[in-house]
Amino acid sequence: MVSKAHEIWIGAYSAKNEVGLTRIELLPDTGELVKTAEYGGIENPTFLRMNRAGTRLYAVSEADAYIDADGDPAEGGQLASFPVDPQTRKLGPGSYAPTHGNHPCHLSLTSSEDWLAVSNYNGASVVLYPVNPDTRPGPPMVRFRHTGTGPNAERQEAPHPHSVFFSEDGRRLYVCDLGMDKVMVYERGQEQGEWTACDASSLEPGAGPRHLILHPANGYLYVVNELNSTVTRFSKNAEGQLERKESVSTLPGSFGGDSWCAEIVVSPDGRFLYVSNRGHDSIAVFGIDGTTGVLTPAGHVSTRGHWPRNFTLTPDGQWLIAANEHSDTIVLFRIEPQSGLPVFTGSELTVSKPACVLAR
Predict the structure, then answer these.
(1) How many helices (H) and strands (E) does the chain have?
(2) Which of 20, 47, 265, 360 could form a disulfide with 7 if both were Cys (CB 3.0 to 4.6 A apart)?
(3) How far is 309 from 324, CA to CA, in rounded Å?
(4) What whole-number distance in Å separates Cα of residue 161 and Cα of residue 209?
(5) Could you give the CA distance from residue 136 to residue 158 in angstroms, rounded to a whole number?
């Protein structure tokens, strides 16, 4: 019996007339990656999400200007959404909405898929869109603007909202702001379109929070800090507010070069946490204590390429796919079930400037 292929989508840095979106199939029986489709027409689709049914692909267009529907120049980036044919898996024509900020770099959907959020890295803002029953985003209804700086004059001269994540119940939105060294928290109200700020938790000065992940079982939240290459654990108090705990390095003690963290992922069974290091060019692996949530370093694995901006696990937790942006490669690893360590399969593909990996 042939196992069902995993569907992989890659978003990349690209000009509008270049390939920006690539569809790949991962064949579990052979451990192969097979490229099945390529699409252009969108500038810098550097972060992707898909609805659970697999019928709509959402992408940010990480830019500071675009041509609107009337042919006029407009400032800021865009949110794109594409219908996906359930049988052929081909993308249909995209629809576009402004993000009202420069260089949108991340997006998230609520579990009920009724709200979508986008972070504008150079726009100091977060925008929320209601999602229509046909899965297309409606006009943006909420916009939050951040103010503040950090001690790193080059990277923290202004707010830089780097990512957005909804809580499992869709009632809260967590925003990692690299420029402010804060995780901002917004809460959904009773009225349609009602979202308000409810919490702000600080990281170590100069940490540069980039992405976060919610543990599927133990209630802890983990933030990966780009600028000081650490992961910080947070718990929640009785009121649901974040309380910062310890931070651990994502780099081996013997490493003395420059490196910056990028992505953070928790295994579906909650036993392991993974972080990518750009510079050290590795995936750092941590064991997770099931009760305390404390991380224990378990090793580092080379991504066999340069600048692993993004990676992901397949939903079954058996495979890890890494995107090496500066060496133009997508590399496949099999997860060793006992240690959690990724093992190179020998399979890789060439994709220009890959920035995001989505697996189904």
Answers:
(1) 0, 30
(2) 360
(3) 6
(4) 9
(5) 32
Taking only the tens place, the pLDDT of each residue in 143-185 is 999 999 999 999 999 999 999 999 999 999 999 999 999 999 9
Residues 350 and 328: beta-carbon distance below 8 Å = yes
Q: Please state the pTM of the whole predicted model.
A: 0.97
C-alpha 71: how far from chain center: 31
Angle at 232 between CA 230 and CA 234, to 5 degrees: 175
pLDDT at residue 41, rounded to an integer: 95
Which contiguous run of DSSP H or E holds residue 212?
strand 209-214
Q: Which two tokens stand for residue 229?
A: 């290459």
Instruction: Return the pLDDT at 238.
Output: 83
pLDDT of residue 2: 79
The residue ranges of the chain whose pLDDT is under 70 are none
How buried is residue 228: exposed, middle or buried, by Cβ count under 10 Å (0-12/13-18/19+)? buried
> Cα–Cα distances in Å, from 292 out to 248, 261, 279?
15, 24, 31
Taking a C-beta distance cutoff of 8 angstroms, is the pair 304, 344 a contact? yes
- Name the β-bridge partners of 199: 185
Question: What residues are paired with 61 via a beta bridge?
Answer: 78
d(CA 296, CA 278): 21
